[in-house]
Amino acid sequence: MGSRYTPFHKIHRTDEKSKRMAHKYKYGPLVFNTTHPDDDDSGNYYWGGLVPVGYDKQGIPVDEHGYQCLDISSPLHPGYTPPQTEYNEILEAVLPAASEVQIWFNDNFLEVSDWQVCYYILRWYNFQQDKSTTYYKIVTECESIEEVIERAWPDVQKS
């Protein structure tokens, strides 16, 4: 009797590996592409590090060593420290400057509307520890994230 593993097992394992590689890891609007030769290039965000294999507790894709596959300089990262901020009088909060967020998306060849930039800024702010009491008040008064954005940025139209 030979080994339990036949050449077909190797093919099956290779197919399983390919299936894992074909899985597109996502975070917010990002769909990760990698430098791995099996990557089908159908995503919108190019990650030059190791291939994502799962997610961490924050929902960020991680590689086989548990390292996050999203640079902390991304305004989508919860730990992002904005280089330029703006004070939003309605939320009574210091937020990343919309122009800086837009630049990051442009630099990564991602198209987002002004409304989406506001959404991602608000999403980032929601991850922060020290939120204003006004923010909490507005969030509880509003029925949707769209309504919060309308109040916080009344001049920005949803597109």
Backbone structural class: alpha+beta
Q: Which strand-content bin applies to the residues?
A: 5-15%
Global outline: elongated
Figure out the total of helices. 5
Radius of gyration: 20 Å
Topology, number of strands: 7
Q: For the largest sheet, list the strands in their spatial order.
A: 1-2-3
Please write the string of helix (H) and strand (E) elements.
Answer: HEEEEEEEHHHH
Q: What is the number of independent domains?
A: 2
Question: How confident overall, as mean pLDDT?
Answer: 86
Helix share of residues? 25-40%
Distance between the termini: 67 Å
Could you list the spans in which at least 5 consecutive residues all have pLDDT below 50? 1-21
Characterize the main sheet: 3 strands, mixed
Q: What do these coordinates show?
A:
The relative contact order is 0.10. The protein is built from 5 helices and 7 strands. It has helices spanning 7-22, 98-107, 114-127, 133-141, 145-152, and strands at 26-27, 30-34, 45-47, 54-55, 61-62, 85-88, 93-96. The chain is elongated. The longest helix has 16 residues, at 7-22. Helices cover 36% and strands 14% of the residues. It folds into 2 domains: 7-62, no CATH class; 85-152, no CATH class. The protein is of the alpha+beta class and 159 residues long. The strands form 3 sheets. It has a 3-stranded mixed β-sheet, with no helix packed on it. A two-stranded antiparallel ribbon has the order 4-5.
Which key phrases capture this entry?
disordered N terminus; 2 domains; 3-stranded mixed β-sheet; 14% strand; single chain; alpha+beta; 159 residues; 7 strands
